[in-house]
Amino acid sequence: MIPVNTPLFGGNEKKYLLECIESGWISSEGPFVSRFEDALAAKVQRQHGIAVANGSVALDVAVAALRIGPGDEVIMPTFTIISPAASVVRAGAIPVLVDSDPVTWNMDVTQIESKITSRTKAILVVHIYGLPVDMDPVLALAEKYHLAIIEDAAEMHGQTYRGRPCGGFGDISTFSFYANKHITTGEGGMILTNDLQLADRCRSLRNLCFLPHKRFVHEELGWNFRLTNLQAAVGLAQLESLDKTVLLKRKIGSQYRSLLQWCADASFQPASMPYADNVCWVFGLVSEKGVDASTVMKALAEVGIGTRPFFWPMHEQPVFNRQGLFVGSSYPTAEKLARFGWYLPSGCGTTLDQVRESSKATIQILSRLTTSNCNE
Is the distance from CB of 345 to CB of 246 less than 8 angstroms? Predict the structure, then answer.
């Protein structure tokens, strides 16, 4: 079986973990936490980094730090993992959705302005799969309407927009360090900002809102969302190798494009846009002949190729529909991506031989399924 993701540990991970064990500093009080925070903040040109337990809770803290709450609206893409919308809903605010751009699969920034109302508090940008959102129009709208920007850069480690690091935009940004990310700590996340007050509030919220001089007295409810020293040690080692990792991921993406470019049965994200080259977090395909992604994925699994489906749109999530959200709404591009999109093995440890085998199987299966679909 070719796994959809294989992490890569080729740097100082073992060395730093041994330092943690030998020193006894394994909890969130250990020195690797601040080292990791400072190093990532510097990498993406931010002043402050706040390490947390995962990328989802990073969004929870970011929303709370901006004091987004009941009655507020947050504009965001419908095509994303559920975490951004869940953070908004848990805060009592209302997600206001926009459809995807059919070329980049990111949120269609031309739809944002029409969704802005007097209750809009923020724009939550989620960069998707390999290309960043076109940020210039978003930044202009935020300035025009005095809106906050939350940048979810979970999938954009090492990516830039017009030469500026992703994760360095807006009022506050977040990263994830899940096992399939360019930087992984197994589980983990980071919040970044240039605003000292926001940073201090995030640090307090992730740490149960202990008062500085009265530790077990609390004026506000927070969470225990701390990252351990062990995880931060791995994260720092991974960050040191990030530039090499990005080169490797782009090589994997380039190989897939070369092998699949003549496959008329499916499309994929461009290698580049005027503002960014694809960082190839995952390599996704979308059937252009009406073959359901689940059918393709099942056939690939039968020949030993691991896959994952694309995100399912927020407006079609049962948990939100039961709350009366998004009922009757339609976002056609996101719906197409969800139904006909999947991604192939493309983790940091994926070999070029595995890319070739996955591509060959994909072409054969798509050809067979497309012919079958046309004959029905």
Answer: no
